[in-house]
Specification:
The protein is about 40% helix and about 20% strand. With about 350 residues, it is of the alpha/beta class. The protein has 2 domains: about 10-135 and about 315-335, ATPase, nucleotide binding domain (Nucleotidyltransferase, domain 5, 2-Layer Sandwich), CATH 3.30.420.40; about 175-270 and about 280-315, 2-Layer Sandwich (Nucleotidyltransferase, domain 5). It is built from 13 helices and 12 strands. It has helices spanning about 5-10, 55-70, 110-115, 125-135, 195-200, 200-215, 220-225, 235-240, 250-270, 280-285, 290-295, 300-305, 315-335, and strands at about 15-20, 25-30, 35-45, 75-80, 85, 90-95, 120-125, 145-150, 155-160, 165, 275-280, 310-315. The strands form 3 sheets. It has a 5-stranded mixed sheet.
Length: about 350
């Protein structure tokens, strides 16, 4: 008998296509079961104009699938995080989103399956991110975890006793819309006045700053943006506030207060083991972490605060594509009758 070659005997490498659709950037990657990202693509979500994000996502998935085949990697499936409320069973985003409206009620999972022939799982992007943090990241081995993702718009996710809490209609964990300033600005997403998103979302901070500098052109905000109002970002505002700018300071103060109130609400309501704060706003918030936690202490039972770990974590597009992969693994276990468990292991390198 002719012995089989080493290549034949060797188990074929496996990966999952993880995708994150953000309001400004779309990322996709090939992720192994231990959380290592083999390849990642990052593109502007609307690189080809408004309404083109679905085609952009499908293009990224096709490219990753082709690379996997060329590299001899077996793809198990596709996991996608979307910035809105998702019907997980139907594989459709059902609405309540203004960043990528073209995804609303579009048969995303069905279309991806048509393109790839692979099983597909969709969920809210922060739910996916939380599953990745629990499996491979800061929450590795933690049974009860809350993730607050602060970016273009703030989002949240809850894992209690190892189970993702989606709620009746998929709204579980929407902490970005906790009311914090009853007389505050109206949120663009939920339309409620004074919710956390209206003061804490990066896009809202930038929008309010742009309006303010039109009345105060002497502000450092404008000079840091090279005199271009349209170039003002939340990061610009935080930088100006550190320099003592009187236009930026109240915007940053409101953002810190909003986060403190949300943390107090989350800790008292859920009593989790850990809260992880991550997302594009974290680099700006890190220098203010001690102040934010001091404010949050005013709203939390002392024992709850003492027993909880709160971590501000830098994240990258590697983490978001891991989210899609973690979502696929979680749902595969759940749908096959296995209780999704916490499997702590070596943490993959953060990008």
């Amino acid at each position: 008998m002719t012995p089989r070659s080493t290549a034949t005997r060797q188990k074929k490498a496996q990966a999952i296509i993880g995708v994150d659709v953000g309001g400004t950037r779309l990322s996709g990657g090939l992720v192994t079961r231990d959380g290592n990202v083999l390849r990642v693509f990052v593109h502007p979500t609307h690189a080809h104009g408004e309404g083109t994000a679905v085609d952009q996502m499908l293009g990224v998935i096709r490219a990753l699938h082709a690379e996997a085949r060329e590299g001899g990697i077996a793809v198990e499936g596709v996991g996608v995080g979307l910035p809105g409320i998702v019907d997980v069973e139907k594989g459709v985003m059902i609405g309540d989103v203004f960043l990528v409206p073209e995804f609303t009620k579009y048969p995303v999972a069905e279309r991806i399956h048509e393109v790839t022939g692979l099983p597909v799982v969709l969920d809210n992007d922060v739910n996916a991110l939380a599953l990745a943090e629990q499996r491979w990241g800061a929450g590795r081995g933690i049974r009860s975890l809350v993730v607050l993702a602060l970016g273009s718009g703030p989002g949240g996710a809850v894992i209690l006793n190892g189970n993702l809490v989606r709620g009746r209609n998929g709204y579980g964990g929407e902490f970005g819309h906790v009311p914090v300033f009853p007389d505050g600005p109206r949120c663009l997403a939920c339309t409620s006045p004074g919710c956390a998103a209206a003061s804490l979302a990066a896009e809202m901070i930038a929008r309010q700053a742009r309006e303010a500098v039109r009345q105060h052109p002497e502000s450092q905000i404008l000079s840091l943006a090279d005199g271009n109002t349209d170039a003002v970002t939340a990061r610009t505002v935080f930088e100006a506030a550190r320099g003592g700018d009187q236009v930026a300071a109240p915007l940053v103060d409101r953002a810190c207060q909003a986060l403190a109130v949300v943390l107090g609400f989350v800790l008292n309501a859920l009593n989790p083991d850990m809260v992880v704060v991550m997302g594009g706003m974290v680099p700006s918030l890190l220098p203010l972490q001690t102040e934010i936690l001091g404010r949050a202490a005013r709203y939390v039972f002392p024992r709850v605060l003492a027993d909880a770990t709160i971590r501000f974590v830098h994240s990258s597009k590697l983490d978001t594509v891991r989210g899609g992969a973690a979502l696929f693994l979680y749902e595969s276990e759940r749908r096959h009758g296995r209780v999704p468990g916490v499997r702590p292991g070596p943490a993959p390198k953060r990008g």
